[in-house]
Amino acid sequence: MSQDTSTFGISIPDIFRSGVRGYFANPLPLSLAAAFTLGTLLAFRVPAQTAFNDGELALSLAYDMIGLILASIVALPWYYYALDQADGRDIDLRRPLKKPGRFGAQAVASFWFWAGFLLGLRYLFGIPSLLALVFYAFYGFVVADSDARGLVALGTSVRIGAGKRIGLAAIAALFLLFNLLGALAVGFAVNALTIGLTLVGLIITTSITMVSGAHVYRVLEKEVEG
Predict the structure, then answer these.
(1) Is residue 75 within 8 Å of residue 33, measured between CB atoms?
(2) 109 by DSSP, 3-state: which?
(3) Domain map (residue ranges) of the chain
(4) Buried/exposed code over 35-59 (b: 16+ C-beta within 10 A; e: otherwise)
(5) Helix 12-25 × helix 76-87 angle, to 10°
(6) 163-196 burial by CB neighbour count: b if 16+ within 10 A, else e?
(7) Cα–Cα distance measured from residue 141 to residue 217, given in angstroms and rounded to the nearest whole number
(8) Using CA atoms, how far apart are residues 16 and 213, in angstroms rounded to an integer?
(9) Residue 208 is inside which H or E element, if any?
(10) Are 202 and 38 within 8 A, CB to CB?
(11) CA angle, corner 200, sides to 75 and 68, nearest 5?
(12) What are the pLDDT digits (tens) for 118-129?
């Protein structure tokens, strides 16, 4: 048995294939959730960059922080749909609205996650931010999958990834490269066409990443429960 299979109960190629199959089996709800999330992020990233260019660093950071938190809250249905797809259930577009309190939990968890992430970028070449990503990457799945409060969701993410940090970091790096492919068009030129192609590309690659992440979450969750 290969190391990646024995570590996660699912090999890295299988993780990727499950994400691709899951997305293309039900692309519409996943794409809509991705579009809303990326649109929210972009709505704040543009003024953040403008403020940065004008030398208003504090304002730029505030825009980024607000955008990241709001985008994470908007992304909660995306986590639901990815889990539904990973579990082989029909995606219910309205299911996230049946427990509105989970949006509050997502807001709390997102605030602390992104505060730590942005703060970590200032020290040790951003290594603390990478650690935050590896430790807390599953908190959105935890919120969508349970009634855990925000800080509990962060703690649960740490617990289910215990002993798997190096493997999770490797998977995160691979999917980061994969998502960079989605943004490849804008690297050649910045115009309406390349921006549109980039948005479409990112909607697809990030949705595949979400479904793949849901599969990894399920495998790790079962290992902890077992």
Answers:
(1) yes
(2) helix
(3) 27-225
(4) bebbebbeebbebbeebeeeeeeee
(5) 100
(6) ebeebbbebbeebeebbeebeebbeeeeeeebee
(7) 7
(8) 9
(9) helix 192-225
(10) yes
(11) 30
(12) 888 777 777 888
- 3-state secondary structure string across 169-185: HHHHHHHHHHHHHHCHH
- Is 179:206 a contact under the CB 8 Å cutoff? yes
pLDDT at 75 over 90: yes
Confirm if 85 and 144 have CB atoms less than 8 A apart: no
Structure tokens at 20: 């691709």
Render pLDDT for 119-163 as a digit per residue (tens, 0 to 9): 887 777 778 888 888 889 999 999 999 988 989 999 999 999 887
Contact 49, 42 (CB under 8 A): no
